């Protein structure tokens, strides 16, 4: 396999010799051309990890290498400006007194002014901002400012770019559009990126792979599909979207759950907590199903699909279905699992966690 563009091994960062680590033995690798996201709740250590990679923070332990060059390690700390890494901050940090073109040309050194200006122009065209070169940043929309910040980072063609919550200042529609455009741009240029966010949907739709972080550690690394459909911990299962938890008795690759006997994604024994996404359950007419009988207690119609809340055996479950068949609150239905349940390695003992639908993930 080729050398990863970024390799972070056992990175630990503490602010003060006696302070507890805010990043603790974090390891991950980013392949060439890959968009990698670090996803986690506020305060879990995402920005600190990114700042260590950029060189703004000195690692307390562990190593950081870009291609074959060690940037941080025992006795090594390469300064930020000597790292071939570009960074896009949350607030864009554009210079208000410079034009868009000047902002982009600012980071290009070595060349003549004419050459820098020409390069800035080229990158501005690439991000769809030709025609805006002579404006000042405050006369641009949030999405356009975002693209100026990105153009400024792309102009020196760094090996790797780091993005810290880059879309957080944009409204929902603009955020979706901008991140699609940025993703296409990075992919067209074959650039590698590490992108930090607390927004689940953003990480799932923007990244090729993501790491879920909590309390300074990485719980799981995988593709969006892997972490969403095969969460390894209770935290990952709950943080990535709503799910149903089922306290179950496992015997090999099957378990008795409150929704009947189901297959498991991996062998387990004894009392286990398993997760089943709402879209992996079906609602059926009870007379034509061998599913678990329950009562519809709520329904959220979303146009293309419907989420039902169904009460079975005293617990409420979420079932996400297409809208070919309608049920009303009060209807008797059968709930049938469509896919194997996912065994969670919960850090809390399963008995503390009741069966049923999880609440809305934060934030
Ligand atoms: N310079 C610093 N000195 C002391 N503590 C710090 C410093 N910078 C960050 N921290 C602490 O480290 C922890 C992790 O912060 P960090 O900014 O990395 O989290 P985050 O996951 O990026 O959060 P957010 O999404 O809110 O930005 C927090 O408890 C924060 O208070």
Provide a concise account of the structure shown.
Keywords: ATP-binding, Nucleotide-binding, Transport. This protein is an alpha+beta fold and 363 residues long.
How is this structure best described in words?
It is a single chain. By secondary structure, the protein is α+β, with helices and mostly antiparallel strands. It has two domains: 6-229, P-loop containing nucleotide triphosphate hydrolases (Rossmann fold); 242-357, Nucleic acid-binding proteins (OB fold (Dihydrolipoamide Acetyltransferase, E2P), Beta Barrel), CATH 2.40.50. It is 22% helix and 37% strand. The protein has helices at 46-54, 100-106, 113-126, 142-154, 172-189, 200-206, 224-229, 234-239, and strands at residues 6-13, 23-30, 35-39, 61-66, 69-73, 76-77, 85-88, 160-164, 192-197, 209-214, 217-222, 244-257, 260-276, 281-284, 292-301, 305-312, 315-322, 332-337, 342-344, 356-357. The strands form four sheets. Strands 7-8-9-3-10-11 form a six-stranded mixed beta sheet, sandwiched between helices. Strands 2-1-4-5-6 form a five-stranded antiparallel beta sheet, with helices on one face. A hairpin with a 3-residue loop joins β15 and β16 (305-312). It is globular, with a radius of gyration of 24 Å. The two termini are 38 Å apart. The model has no long low-confidence stretch (mean pLDDT 90). The structure holds adenosine-5'-triphosphate. Residues 15, 22, 40, 42-48, 198 line the site of adenosine-5'-triphosphate. This is Iron(III) ABC transporter, ATP-binding protein. Residues 6-240 form the ABC transporter domain.
